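Subject: mismatched residue count in predicted assembly?

I count 1392 residues in my input, but I want to confirm that the predicted structure covers every chain. Input:
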Amino acid sequence: MSHTVAVAGASGYAGGELLRLLAGHPEFEVRTVTAHENAGMPVTAVHPHLHSYSGLEFAPTSAETLAGHDVVFLALPHGRSGAIADSLAGIPLIVDCGADHRLTDADQWAAFYGGEFHPPWAYGLPELPLAAGGTQRSALSGARRIAVPGCNVTAITLGLAPGIRDRIVMADDIVAVLAVGTSGAGRSLRTELLASEIHGSAGPYAVGGVHRHVPEIRQNLGAAGARNVTVSFTPVLVPMSRGILATSTARLAPGIRADEVRESWEAAYGHETFVRLLPEGSFPKTADVLGSNLAAIGIAVDEAAGRVVAVTAIDNLVKGTAGAAIQSANLAVGLPETAGLPVNGVAP
Amino acid sequence: MSHTVAVAGASGYAGGELLRLLAGHPEFEVRTVTAHENAGMPVTAVHPHLHSYSGLEFAPTSAETLAGHDVVFLALPHGRSGAIADSLAGIPLIVDCGADHRLTDADQWAAFYGGEFHPPWAYGLPELPLAAGGTQRSALSGARRIAVPGCNVTAITLGLAPGIRDRIVMADDIVAVLAVGTSGAGRSLRTELLASEIHGSAGPYAVGGVHRHVPEIRQNLGAAGARNVTVSFTPVLVPMSRGILATSTARLAPGIRADEVRESWEAAYGHETFVRLLPEGSFPKTADVLGSNLAAIGIAVDEAAGRVVAVTAIDNLVKGTAGAAIQSANLAVGLPETAGLPVNGVAP
Amino acid sequence: MSHTVAVAGASGYAGGELLRLLAGHPEFEVRTVTAHENAGMPVTAVHPHLHSYSGLEFAPTSAETLAGHDVVFLALPHGRSGAIADSLAGIPLIVDCGADHRLTDADQWAAFYGGEFHPPWAYGLPELPLAAGGTQRSALSGARRIAVPGCNVTAITLGLAPGIRDRIVMADDIVAVLAVGTSGAGRSLRTELLASEIHGSAGPYAVGGVHRHVPEIRQNLGAAGARNVTVSFTPVLVPMSRGILATSTARLAPGIRADEVRESWEAAYGHETFVRLLPEGSFPKTADVLGSNLAAIGIAVDEAAGRVVAVTAIDNLVKGTAGAAIQSANLAVGLPETAGLPVNGVAP
Amino acid sequence: MSHTVAVAGASGYAGGELLRLLAGHPEFEVRTVTAHENAGMPVTAVHPHLHSYSGLEFAPTSAETLAGHDVVFLALPHGRSGAIADSLAGIPLIVDCGADHRLTDADQWAAFYGGEFHPPWAYGLPELPLAAGGTQRSALSGARRIAVPGCNVTAITLGLAPGIRDRIVMADDIVAVLAVGTSGAGRSLRTELLASEIHGSAGPYAVGGVHRHVPEIRQNLGAAGARNVTVSFTPVLVPMSRGILATSTARLAPGIRADEVRESWEAAYGHETFVRLLPEGSFPKTADVLGSNLAAIGIAVDEAAGRVVAVTAIDNLVKGTAGAAIQSANLAVGLPETAGLPVNGVAP
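Triage response: the counts match. Full output below for your records.
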């Protein structure tokens, strides 16, 4: 029995990717797509790649247009999801791709985002290994309100969480540097996102601990069992549209031998469909997962440096956003977790 | 009075860049260019962008073709420079862009490169601040044999050396992740360097402390005053031809306040032509230095993480190789250090 | 009832794309994948994006390994398909992605390819409007041997064929210039295909009428009704992995008014699933069809120049190769023509 | 004796490139740079690659700030140059990079641009071979007002003008398709110029004869001797920042043999520094001329199609704009034509 779906804020990149994936979903049926500035326009005028939506127009984003659906996906700027969510009380399942319901700590919200704090929703990272045992998946089964993780957060968290939980690595001096594609910045008209500025160039942003994803990383690694998490996190914009390649390093815990490291990751992910641990000596590139819901991870032990290096590749728009939203929604409504989600990348 | 120049191994990317820069040099006059496989071909058949070399052909690389020049630049694979250098004893100045004469420690050579060890030459990183005071520049004045640093090494070294020398940051747990362009891998026919594999994708290589540049980084930071250097170094290939964006982090030394950090870098580089420290809150992208001999550096203090983050952008073929070679040669023969070296990048 | 499938030559880009698409096909079941040099290797070692093929290895390409399947897709270099096809007489359906069975004229084969001529197979471009009425689709229903068109050929043919058939445009002075991605050149280790050579650069190849696709374009437009076809065809390699953007122009036939042009294309493609005629004033970009089996076409009449301009975007690996192969195979075995074929692109 | 220079509208890409090239010019000394929105900002805040301009700020663009210079370069949007030029009567030399003074025909201006028509200035394409004999160079010596050609126009004109003048090819059915980089569209905040939209994609614009460069192409080929020029011109935006690769085709004139074609181009360009005719069978790519003032041209005769194909590569910001401006200014003030202009490209 299929579920009717509305996607709010569907004129951006995350919203477009939700539509692309939902078009191939066997049980979710998109009935309504909404937008703010683009209300009234054909979907294909904004997303000319979404040929299957020919004939459909964006409705305005409002409580009225979203009412009456079984599932509502919100792909709105942060601050907007929280505001509208209150008026959607009757919707059985809401999945928020924005940040409004991710953080559990109001002070961290105030420090990194500001504005009104909204209480956290079930956190949509099913594969996150928990200190308490099991995975975050258990919190998603039957959930009615889900917060989709930040894309950078997903890449770093999946890269390091197994070793954190198993006390193989220490969380007190994590360093993560991410090569990120431009779609993560959204469809924003900013000079620094123009193609002429991005072609042939790599440059960082939000350097020095100010990126909004920092508290969410700490929160996740805390859930995996870390007491004191410190993370130096630097995203680097590189000339590609999609993809995150996270190089995350953590110090090897005292007394742990190199040959004990790998089995922690194998235990965490050996049975996961959407997390692929690569063989010893292999590391992923983002093209390997482009368009798919996979996180591909390679790990190495640098004994001279005393650090474990975890390299994680995800598609920021799929496993980093829209795919995670659908995966979590599948769990929430009792569908197979993998329904409608590609496992093969589009390459070359 | 001009100096006659030969460039050996000029059919690769580093050699081509030497030719490009030397074409605009007021005192170095290219007389001979040599190649191995391409001997006998017109220079413009291999480097169609070097229009000013129309009419010139590659000679074979040999002691005979290189003899009789005032300056010989070697742009050969490692292992080859050392072998040919012995037969060029009469050349007043040899500048080696390869690795053969960089390392001072034969054990490190054996561990990371293998093959015959060659004694170190004067190290061609003029701006390197030394523990003993002053800079590496003093070792280059009048030098007859110069080893050009590795490109990744230059980016990391320049990023962190001031704080290391001034004991602002600690060298015992450095983490550096570099977004690097494909030209650093040379003109090698390898599947993973095909455009179809690289477009729209980021992926690491030499993960886990095995990259050959590791001992050279340690050597440099040792020269800057560090006792025990450990460095976790991960290069990430991104879809651009040129450029290195190094994100290098080091732990803040105990007792150092955030506001004490910046002056160390200012003191080291305030008078340097080719190292530009960006204003507080600004960070470079590689396009800012493309085609130029500049290293542009931005630094931030992440107090929560207890780390200083230094972001360095260089053009791997210029400041990372050919520009460094010419800058060092300028010093060696007593020319103005800046002769023939662009300070403006080519952008967008 | 599903059909067992083998893919021969599956380690190249076309073969990889066949595997990607077949993984999502409801009725074709890949049992065997073969390769030449990579025989014995895991599929995911060569195609790390094809996670669903984990555990499968390449068999050698031979009559033995291909025997016994319902459908064999050949993704071999030209000259190789013809040779092996003879030994596969018992296979119910063979679909050749190479050139060996495309041309009907042995002289043209000799002039443009050389080597042994093989008789033509049913030509796999279902939407091609025929002078005789109807489309090429009718030749594919029940076919046992199918030749998949060349990718550039598909883009130009679909762009102009309606107007040719309806005598809206003339075929005697066609000019087509194509921006093409690098994957069309295959996984070949050639210097000019290295990422460093391709980034930030556009350059032509096969200039002046020597490209092997020229006779096939003439053959198709002849099938659409043209008597004397001449075509000036220039492919330009641009920095992207996938996609063909064909700008094809033909002179307006005498007496045809601009407002009569559009209806010809509308009549030809109005009911086609995989050819999308864009609204007046709209033109496609290759990202609109990336990963999908669509050809998106925009047309304009340049009255001052007396020419119709047809701009066609396809993904060279899908509608240009692997998607066309599967679409034709669907027709051949009586499945819905659209089975397993994406209509939405992957963007941004 | 050096000439004082002001650059108006210097915060865009054309203006930035003027500054880059002028920094290396031996006789032009930049005293003033102006901007509209960015007035008061440091030059390096807008152009972080122009390190040599550290310390300089943008003045507002006005008659007052531009007064008193020997040479004023205008890099303003069309419509703006004409307006301000009237107030700069006392400036010895004004070089306009915009369109306001290019067209000789007021009707064409009205049809393609609209707004006030300004009388034409000396046209800055020195190498243009004229029907009357000689080149356009003669009109530039001593000129006081110069209009720099449109970038696409330069590429097409240089590609075909020799054959037009020598009646080797016919001008009545020219077809030109250009692969163009994004910098040609300027630093405009438009969604379709965002990196995410451009990466990995090629798409046309101004299809069907509506591009503003059409009348200028006709004007130039008329100056080369054509009576009736018709040109079908389609620019295709491809994923690179700089560069134009123009594929221009014209029908071979009746009675002309293929072996008579080449000498026309050789005669026109054999002595030109900035136009390089490639050897038979060779064709340029844009990387060959990136950052340089060269136009590289390859020609082929497609006998079957009855057309000559001229492939021209230029850097749109150099030979297409800023380099042409400086080359023309050199001629105007009596300096060596090549002063300050690079002939080698920056590659790879």
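The domain at 3-149+318-333 of chain C is CATH 3.40.50.720 (Rossmann fold). Marking this ticket as 'not a bug'.
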